[in-house]
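Aim 2 progress update. The chain analyzed this quarter is reproduced below.
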Amino acid sequence: MYICQQIGATFKYTEDKASLIEQLKQHPQAVVLLDYTLFDINDADELLILCQRFRQVHWVLFSEELSPDFVRRVTASSTQISILLKESPLHEIRQALDYALSAQRYICQRMMEILLTPETPAVPADVKLTSTEREILKDIAMGMTSREIAEKRFSSFHTVNTHRKNIFRKISVNNVHEATRYALRAGLVDAAEYYI
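Predicted C-alpha cells:
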C-alpha cells in the first residue's frame, strides 16, 4: 500500500500502482511512504524507473525486511529513496519523514549496521513452503500479479498478498525478480515453460 503526501497537504492513500502514478502526476513534489514488500512494484529496476519519472518525489521504504543487496542497489542509484525498517524506533521514523520532506535521504541505524557488516557466504537452508505457498510462488514466477492470483484461486487480494509476504520472507527475497530466480533454481517452474 502507498501513502502519498504532498508537502503541506493531507495524506492521500492509494491501493495500487496506477492510482499512485495518477496521484504523483497531480502532486509532483510528494513524499511516498511505501511498504515495499507488500505491494506490486516488481523489483529495484521498476522502483528506480519511478524515481526517474518523478524526480522531485521522495520515497520512504518502510518495510519488515529488505535485503542488503536490494538496499545497496537502490541507494547507490537514487538519492530519492530513504530506508526504514518497521522495527525502527519512533524517533527514527520522525527523522526519516523530516529528511524526506527536506528532500534528503535517510537510512535507519539498523539498516546501516547491516550494510556495514561484512558479508558472509550464505548457507543454503531448507525452506519449508506450504503447498499453497509453492503454487503462489509458481504463479508469481510465471508473471501473474497478486490480483490475478487472487482471481485464479478465488481468494482475496489481501490473502494472496499475505502469502506473498510470507513466501518472500521464507525464501529471503524482496521482489518478483528474485522470487522468480528462486523458483527456477528450486525447480518449481520449468525453464522452458518460463521462457515461452
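The longest helix spans residues 157-170. The two ends are 32 Å apart (CA to CA). These observations will guide the mutagenesis experiments scheduled for the next reporting period.
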